[in-house]
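Dear Dr. H.,

I hope your travels went smoothly. While you were away I took the liberty of generating a structure for the chain from your last submission, since the lab meeting agenda had it listed for discussion. I wanted you to have the full record in hand beforehand rather than looking at slides cold. The sequence, exactly as received, is reproduced here:
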Amino acid sequence: MNSGRDGRTVQHGGSFYHFRTVEQATGFYRGIQEGKSVESCRQRWRPSLVQVAVAPRVAPLAGQPAPPN
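The corresponding predicted structure, in token form, is as follows:
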């Protein structure tokens, strides 16, 4: 999965994790790179804000009901 870090922000799986310090962001990013789960890294490094990726909506195929809102 694509991951990257820029200052106090880490991007992973299309989501952004914002931290109060560079050290927190570095620790979170290092944990992800070592193969730890995102949930365990979130519990350990406590991001101050998480912007979760949302899949784009697609039109239903002909004859199928539209997805619920």
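Two observations you may find useful: The CA atoms of residues 28 and 43 lie 10 Å apart. The longest strand covers residues 3-6.

With kind regards,
E. W.
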